[in-house]
Amino acid sequence: xxxxxxxxxxxxGLTRMQEALPxxxxxxxxxxxxxxxxxWGRNWVYLCRADTLDGPRSFRSFQVxxxxxxxxxxxxxxxxxxxxxxxxxxxxxxxxAEGTLKKAMITCPYHQWVYDLTGRxxxxxxxxxxxxxxxxxxPLHRVRVAEWGGFVFVNLDPDASSFEELYGAETAYVAxxxxxxxxxxxxxxxxxxxxxxxxxxxxxxxxxxxxxxPELCELVPIYGRxxxxxxxxxxxxxxxxxxxxxRSGGLRTGAExxxxxxxxxxxxxxxxxxxxxxxxxxxxxxxxxxxxxxxxYVRIVKITPTGPETMELTAEWLFLPDTLARPDFDADKITRxxxxxxxxxxxxxxxxxxxxxxxxxxxxxxxxxxxxxxxxQQWVREQLGEAPKSEGAASxxxxxxxxxE
Length: 405
Ligand code: FES
Ligand SMILES: [Fe+2]
Hints:
By secondary structure, the chain is α+β, with helices and mostly antiparallel strands. Helices cover 26% and strands 24% of the residues. The site of fe (ii) ion (FE2) has 8 residues, from α5.
């Protein structure tokens, strides 16, 4: 399907109704396994902030696409990624979630094979030499690592395009934010009883905003019109110069950031007036994370599927260390607002997911405003080989500037 055939020219909308994804894709275990393999196993997945691996020999372990992955900082300070599996008989190498290795070696806890921090096999424990075995043939299996702005991503696919190639244009959009300097000030996690795609579909439309997010709609007036951006309005050209927030997509007059009272606590250095006036800027790395950039802080929202019908949502708030140290700094004013919005969205996603279990429901329909949901679903189809790859849909689905959450 060509983008042009379904997307309006000139404003953001679908030219005609589109069928949504099959309902079974939201709960069928075999389909879920296919998505882990084809989508989560082939895209860049956000893991953590780089400074949570603090110094040489620190490590953290993760599940990515249902597979064990290990991140280790080597003696030179470089982050190395490996599958968390021993080349001998496949034991987990590091069963702990995080820690610091005593020596610059990874020793398998099962039979004591020893690897250096670049993954080379250096010793085979008590085992005697055996004909046909060469240590050099058994380094750890590597996982590709990319760092941007202090965020760490991995990709299990050795042939995937580089992070820079895929997301360079999008990350340039928030180039003024001092991302590397920011520190995690608060973390919030929540299990959602929904398929991971329901989360992204909700993220990609604002038809639910007036009903589900009264407080957010007051802060971001355009959301109160059930749209996300200026060009979502078919009559946008008539108001093209109108900078009123309900047209431009900025924050309500007088507000500076996403917080309970709209007030910012300082301003991150380097931001332009335009950056601040935008109110929110998003970097979206589908399927694992979106990063919301504001005047005084940044919020990471990480998605981890834990089964066909469950997912873990983890939010991290990043601040300048100086801000965190200020005696009058009130992180609660910021985090409470984000948690309120995420709880509202989480509830909506669970509601959506539960209803899709009805056998009479085969698939939904997408209406004019749901163009970003369509692009996301088209991206899913393409990843699964169910639709021909169209670069337009793929890149647009991972590059939405205005989103509603
Ligand atoms: S499985 Fe690791 S040393 Fe045997
Ligand atoms: Fe929402």
